[in-house]
């Protein structure tokens, strides 16, 4: 049988987490917390599961949650959205990204990706018959060169996918970046997917989103994730906000992918947003303390820690430790030193000549200190 994705193997996240488990290593590779969500959220999940909320929810999500999302968006970005025509719940942000891509990419359409890019983007474009045009963000700043990006646009370019706060580099778009993106999209009549799953985990500036730029919003799918926000990645509950015309196209695909998403979780998250919205607004501070704990503990190491402006990741340059490529170094780190990390090269079509890996600090403080002690021993 001819594969539709002949170059795609097992995702690096699965590979490194399996290796960490096999070697009993501290897993700072895959981006998930090792602590439990808010007890209120768990109690509400149990409550709704035990009180009849176990059947199909509406295809676009329960009205209560869509209204809560609209309220949160207004609070964060000052944008009023219609919860009925502009908000769609999805089974995780990855499903929402896949659906948005399938909704607008036609065979031979070009899609601009900024590498290092989350590894679900390119396969989804390929499955839609699109052509990926990769633009590399270069270390150590990983800042987009908007002139280079503009030069990559052709008459066939349909879509650009951006991600801020950015996984895996932990960088955050500035206002100038958002303005440049808005100008580029408007000038060339491009659609945009803005992957904002880490939108509330920003450390050194106010939260900025495509929501804040009206002309940009009019042509953008904005994807976010409650898994990241409420430390419950296994619930796979995300959502997409888009103008009515784009949302209508999104829902045409969504209904045939998952149709609807985990019903008790929708009700539990609604309660959480209504009762504990301060936890959302305090997420940046919560993870800033974890970032600082890890970075400070790593000061005695031979790793050069790069700035982390957002997400719950930190990059580290290991050039002073090893000449190995990052994939081999991460395997050595896991098997011989008991800490799992993610190599950055796997997120590039054409990796730069650098030795940089990604650590996840969405962990308990003791986990971070134990990992840092092992890393400082190298």
Overall description:
This protein has 378 residues and is of the alpha/beta class. The chain folds into 2 domains: 114 residues, Aspartate Aminotransferase, domain 1, CATH 3.90.1150.10; 238 residues, Type I PLP-dependent aspartate aminotransferase-like (Major domain) (Aspartate Aminotransferase, domain 2). It has 15 helices and 13 strands. It has a 7-stranded mixed sheet with strand order 2-8-7-6-5-3-4, sandwiched between helices. The chain is globular. The N and C termini lie far apart (46 Å). The mean pLDDT is 96.
Q: Mind summarizing the main beta sheet?
A: 7 strands, mixed
At the third CATH level, what is the topology name of the largest domain?
Aspartate Aminotransferase, domain 2
Percent in strands: 5-15%
Strand order of the largest sheet: 2-8-7-6-5-3-4
CATH homologous superfamily caption of the largest domain:
Type I PLP-dependent aspartate aminotransferase-like (Major domain)
Radius of gyration: 20 Å
The number of domains is: 2
Shape: globular
Q: Any low-confidence stretches, pLDDT <50, length ≥5? A: none
Number of helices: 15
Distance between the termini: 46 Å
Q: What structural category characterises the helix and strand content?
A: alpha/beta
> Mean pLDDT, rounded to whole units?
96
CATH architecture classification name of the largest domain:
3-Layer(aba) Sandwich
GO cellular component, one term: cytoplasm
GO molecular function, one term: pyridoxal phosphate binding
Protein name: Methionine aminotransferase
Domain Aminotransferase class I/classII large: 25-373
